[in-house]
Fold this sequence. Notes:
The complex is a heterodimer. By secondary structure, chain A is mainly α. Chain A has 19 helices and two strands. In chain A, helix 10 packs antiparallel against helix 13 and helix 12 packs antiparallel against helix 17. Chain B has eight helices and no strands. By secondary structure, chain B is mostly helical. Chains A and B meet through helix 5, helix 6, helix 8 and helix 9 of A and helix 4, helix 6, helix 7 and helix 8 of B.
Amino acid sequence: xxxxxxxxxxxxxxxxxxxxxxxxxxxxxxxxxxxxxxxxxxxxxxxxxxxxxxxxxxxxxxxxxxxxxxxxxxxxxxxxxxxxxxxxxxxxxxxxxxxxxxxxxxxxxxxxxxxxxxxxxxxxxxxxxxxxxxxxxxxxxxxxxxxxxxxxxxxxxxxxxxxxxxxxxxxxxxxxxxxxxxxxxxxxxxxxxxxxxxxxxxxxxxxxxxxxxxxxxxxxxxxxxxxxxxxxxxxxxxxxxxxxxxxxxxxxxxxxxxxxxxxxxxxxxxxxxxxxxxxxxxxxxxxxxxxxxxxxxxxxxxxxxxxxxxxxxxxxxxxxxxxxxxxxxxxxxxxxxxxxxxxxxxxxxxxxxxxxxxxxxxxxxxxxxxxxxxxxxxxxxxxxxxxxxxxxxxxxxxxxxxxxxxxxxxxxxxxxxxxxxxxxxxxxxxxxxxxxxxxxxxxxxxxxxxxxxxxxxxxxxxxxxxxxxxxxxxxxxxxxxxxxxxxxxxxxxxxxxxxxxx
Amino acid sequence: xxxxxxxxxxxxxxxxxxxxxxxxxxxxxxxxxxxxxxxxxxxxxxxxxxxxxxxxxxxxxxxxxxxxxxxxxxxxxxxxxxxxxxxxxxxxxxxxxxxxxxxxxxxxxxxxxxxxxxxxxxxxxxxxxxxxxxxxxxxxxxxxxxxxxxxxxxxxxxxxxxxxxxxxxxxxxxxxxxxxxxxxxxxxxxxxxxxxxxxxxxxxxxxxxxxxxxxxxxxxxxxxxxxx
Lengths: 502, 228
């Protein structure tokens, strides 16, 4: 029942907006579907917390704490983006980004594209997390790519086509690698699980028999899956599509992609990680994950230091955050996965705030260049600009904010797992990123006013910023007990190692 | 017993068809006309459907017939027709301009094939002595070679449409692996994958069309404004 709600609400919303002719109707449907989707996700989380796991259609749909967490975070971001998107596109229309007033039909067509494709994106995202079958999960991940390609080309500029092309090609090749990995896992499992039926790729079946998998095949499968879903998550060196796509897509889309696509890809990776650990022990996957995680943070750092464009800056920050999560998974132990999932939770709240502030700044000044804007944004955007600065402090892991806790947990996991050198390198890179990021945003926000002081009038755009800011501050001191229980349960799934190891 | 009911005959047929599939892949690397490339892809998909049929017949696995039929209809007929229409409509120059010249490309493809055999060797040993004679398992190196050569084609070509073709032939390698290793994944997943591939190609084709409109060329190397 909860599954049906979760999956059918976005599908219905997409269908309804496709046929509606009024802008207000589309906006209302979008808002309602976001609320409904979030409610369904909360219901699912409640069910999982009280019963452990839940499934339907003989395991075709399956949810444990890990899936419930990813669904909850994804639908939360979707909910945060819904009101912001309304304000964002109204401002776009007022600024005549879609062309002049003469052709209202064209405007409506553009808006309809956003309001029909985003629910489809949300649908595939939920399906990734609740699919009990690794093959269906792959199909759903591909679905998120397909739904988002035309959202990246939304503005139809030559540069957005270029970004979409890069995204389509890298994600396409990456996902074919992930599919190859999935086929190999199925092959490795064939001897132990036997069946050729649909359930042979079910998570619950696989995780039980993983210790008897063929070891050589599993090793190759994990490498392919890591490269494949890593490309989708934007882990270096497959990260090059990310800055382009995030700076060319409309801001709500960029926020959704930066959080949901990353979460979904890492979720898929974590599932295969558990299978690999159960079969081969933690040493082999950990080495690879630490390598790719540190590489992502290391590649993001110099690009953040010399960045000239703040939307791209956010994209590199997203590569860095993805790297931290992968690193947490790689450090392993009890603390590593906990740090990774806490980081995922906090990141999902903080990143949209950053994107919204950046979007408000871009719509105010008309460009997203750090050089063209001479600073003093504080006077033009009295609400978003200070919050931009605060969100920057939060995302770079400054102590009162929650991301400090998760990054600290990841670092402790590194020391606990005898990876001292890696942990020290990790901290050094984080310091460099903090310095670059904070310098750029402070230059942008602070400074003398370039014009008379202004007010932000569009409530659709400021209220989400204020709400998320309050949440970011509150989460620095208090994480609701059920959410923490969910994170802890999810971490236990990722850490669960077999009692006997061959 | 007729000779076509002999599993050994089936095995030989599969090996033969797999060899042709590999030859076609290298043909796609070696020759320069876009239309011929699309034809080669169509024949390759036809042969894959044949392999799937043979596996289905000898293993009495009816669900693989469905996969074979899907391959035949979608990849051997619909997609090539669609791609040729696209080529005709956007009136691009029909010659492929690879970044690496043809003889070198063929040598690289040969090396990649050898690499595929090296990679596949432990996997074949992994399937155990009893299974190693099983039908079609010796096509795994071919599947990996298709995958690697497709990958090479993607990075060595500049035109958007030829990159799409490379992606498609890479996916043919995946299909061959799925058939030869697992006798087809469970049917529902196959359906999902095919559907996804089809939609992906549609989207890519529309992108190709719009790139053509905006840049007046399909040269991907011109897509280089976004940096840093």
